[in-house]
Amino acid sequence: MDDSEFHRIKRLPPYVFAEVNAMKARARAASQDVIDLGMGNPDQPTPAHIVAKLAEAAANPRTHGYSNSRGIPGLRRAQAAYYARRFGVELDPESEIIVTLGSKEGLANLAQAITSPGDVIMAPNPSYPIHPYGFMIAGGSIRHIPVPGQITIDEFMPALEHAVRHSVPKPIALVLNYPSNPTAQVVDLEFYRQVVDFCRRQNIWILSDLAYSEIYFDDVPPPSVLQVPGGREIAIEFTSMSKTYSMAGWRIGFAAGNKRLIHALTRIKSYLDYGAFTPIQVAATAALNGPQDCVAEARALYKERRDVLIEGIQGAGWDIPSPPASMFAWAPIPEPFGKLGSLAFSKLLLSQANVAVSPGVGFGEYGDTHVRIAMVENKHRIRQAIRNIKVVLADPERSIDLYLRGLGDNVTPLKARA
């Protein structure tokens, strides 16, 4: 069935991840042992006390009706308490917080609420796909700000000023995402201060995605843009339960900040959904208000995996920067394979090492020199992936030759390379 004639579908680029996903499916159908470091899907179970609260609430038949589109009051109060203890930011749960069906849905529906046809939105490139394409679906146009790797405020501000100066019409909003998916970069409060000051002068909204706020490995946790004086005048921030509490499939997130933007999102959502299943919201409340040992344990787990991945892959001859946060490593394609681009290199790794990664071009054209590696397998599996990749890296000329001779879309058992 061809859907290409539909206007909003025509505005979206091809979904490059689909090619790698199709290869994974074929490999698994052929009983190949694929080590999947592609999708950022947490592999750990949701903590038991959160699941128990879900079961308890679901046993009450009165919780099975329509819920509250903007979230039950207790959950909004719990999110306000989180902001107070984590960032020192006091929020009104009635006017400055709304519950979303994950941060992705919140961003997409805010785009519908604030975007008129032809409006310009500035988004980092590479970035998580919903950041630019949520606004494209809503009828807006995207002005990309290149951020291919780690970028300082001294580099970011000129790029931001250039984007504003050369955009017609003037941009209405800027998307930020730190810790970043896919680049894993973090920024400090000074970064946010300069961006907030500039955007306030230019009357530009800031839309901050803070989904990875609790997956960090340095002593100083990532800050919130709402901590900056004046931030709440122009900024809204999206967070999520998905990674922090291994609740990805539960689809619970939040938007917090500017009252006008929260009100706009509330209006749109009131027409589109009745909120998440009430027992899920009750369990999310228990997660935020309950013991946070599980969050520290998840952070420690990802740090262990990061250290195993970086030490092992660098030992194999692939120089990958150690990510300071998130569950991803943003890996520059090794020089001998650079001419392939990220999609072909991802397919090469899958076909010859049985390791799936995400091609950087799927996050924007400025990501085509990298692949994203998700730390969603245990340490044993990560070490196995490193051993497999080491075989490929040991003979780049042969690996590229195998790929170019037509084996790129078929997974080849490693023993066939011997």
Outline the structure in words.
The strands form three sheets. Strands 2-8-7-6-5-3-4 form a seven-stranded mixed sheet, with helices on both faces. It has a three-stranded antiparallel sheet with strand order 9-12-11. The chain is globular and about 60 Å long. The longest helix has 23 residues, at 293-315. It has helices spanning 7-10, 17-29, 48-58, 73-87, 102-114, 130-137, 153-165, 189-202, 231-234, 259-272, 278-289, 293-315, 342-353, 379-394, 396-407; strands at 35-36, 97-100, 120-125, 141-146, 173-177, 205-209, 235-240, 253-257, 328-332, 355-356, 358-359, 370-374. With 418 residues, the chain is α/β, with parallel strands linked by helices. It folds into two domains: 7-45 and 294-417, Aspartate Aminotransferase, domain 1 (Alpha-Beta Complex), CATH 3.90.1150.10; 48-289, Type I PLP-dependent aspartate aminotransferase-like (Major domain) (Aspartate Aminotransferase, domain 2, 3-Layer(aba) Sandwich), CATH 3.40.640.10.
Secondary structure elements and pairings:
Layout: H1 7-10, H2 17-29, E1 35-36, H3 48-58, H4 73-87, E2 97-100, H5 102-114, E3 120-125, H6 130-137, E4 141-146, H7 153-165, E5 173-177, H8 189-202, E6 205-209, H9 231-234, E7 235-240, E8 253-257, H10 259-272, H11 278-289, H12 293-315, E9 328-332, H13 342-353, E10 355-356, E11 358-359, E12 370-374, H14 379-394, H15 396-407
Parallel strand pairs: 1-10, 3-4, 3-5, 5-6, 6-7
Antiparallel strand pairs: 2-8, 7-8, 9-12, 11-12
